[in-house]
Write a structure and sequence with these properties.
Elements (H helix, E strand, L loop, with lengths): L4 E9 L2 E6 L2 E7 L1 H11 L4 E5 L11 H8 L6 E4 L5 H10 L3 E4 L1 H5 L2 H10 L4 E9 L23 E5 L4 E6 H11 L3 E6 L11 H10 L4 E4 L5 H9 L5 E4 L1 H4 L5 H10 L7
Parallel strand pairs: 1-4, 1-12, 4-5, 5-6, 6-7, 7-10, 10-11, 11-12
Antiparallel strand pairs: 1-2, 2-3, 7-8, 8-9
Length: 270
């Protein structure tokens, strides 16, 4: 049986790890290299580094911070934020990343997924999806959106880009399936509604995406206790859980999380 993964997340703004609520009201959580070293020591299965304002600010990901973080970890490192080209992907991999995460650029230019997969392998390309529940007034015809991917009256979640600032008109489930068809090796799925609320993952969203694709899905957004992690695996059908607040602020350690999940029958890598 394949083991499930626990992945701490470093959301970085201006060189510092931050944590917010539904993508706003950011507060400082520490130095990225120091936290990376801690999570590597504690037994994190992977680490995700997201430069959360790079796309919105139209700048490149902070390479020097990636280099500092990669020196501290000996577990797979995924880097995202501000990656717009194959050359950007190459730069991040050379800086020490094992995978790159693309969101805004993948929506703007889906061929980037295919180019990245062909150039570096599917396992290196993670498509991040920031999704928010759809309201009735958001379902409208958008001529710039592929009709096969656009929101319909049956849609439940919309994809957002630029750090959660820009609605795209894309149905999240349809976009996830298309991203995998284009070459994505993994989906990093964040519920904007649940993010930072500490009330649990959006299990319906996670399950819908997990059932729609054939690659691993990382559930993100909303973990407040260890049972929420279990629910993401059990009900959400996720392959991995990403968490920030419960680890950054010392609520639980990764070791405590793995021990709890093993006790509930979830296979963990120790």
């Amino acid at each position: 049986m394949l083991t499930k993964r626990i992945i701490p997340c470093l959301d970085v703004d201006a060189g510092r790890v931050v944590k917010g609520t539904s993508f706003v009201n950011l507060r400082d959580a520490g130095d990225p290299a120091e936290l990376a070293a801690l999570y590597n020591k504690e037994g994190g299965d992977e680490l995700v580094f997201l430069d959360i304002t790079a796309s919105a600010d139209s700048r490149e990901t902070m390479v020097e911070v990636i280099e500092r973080v990669s020196e501290q970890v000996f577990i797979p490192l995924t880097v995202g934020g501000g990656i717009r080209s194959v050359e950007d992907i190459r730069r991040m991999l050379h800086a020490g990343a094992d995978k790159v995460s693309v969101n805004t650029a993948a929506v703007n230019d889906p061929d980037l997924i295919t180019q990245g997969a062909h150039g570096f392998g599917n396992q290196c390309i993670v498509v991040a999806i920031d999704a928010k529940r759809v309201t009735v007034d958001q379902v409208s015809d958008n001529p710039s959106v592929d009709p096969e991917l656009s929101l319909t009256p049956d849609s439940k979640w919309q994809v957002f880009t630029r750090g959660g600032r820009t609605p795209t008109g894309l149905d999240a489930v349809k976009w996830a399936a298309r991203a995998v068809a284009l070459g994505a090796g993994e989906i990093l799925l964040t519920s904007m509604d649940a993010d930072g609320q500490l009330e649990g993952y959006d299990l319906a969203l996670t399950r819908s995406i997990s059932q729609a694709v054939t690659v691993p899905v990382i559930a993100s957004g909303g973990a407040g206790n260890l049972d929420h992690l279990f629910q993401a695996f059990d009900q959400g059908k996720a392959d991995a859980v990403l968490a920030a607040s419960i680890f950054h602020f010392g609520t639980y350690s990764i070791g405590q999380a793995k021990e709890y999940l093993e006790g509930r029958g979830v296979p963990m890598r120790r």
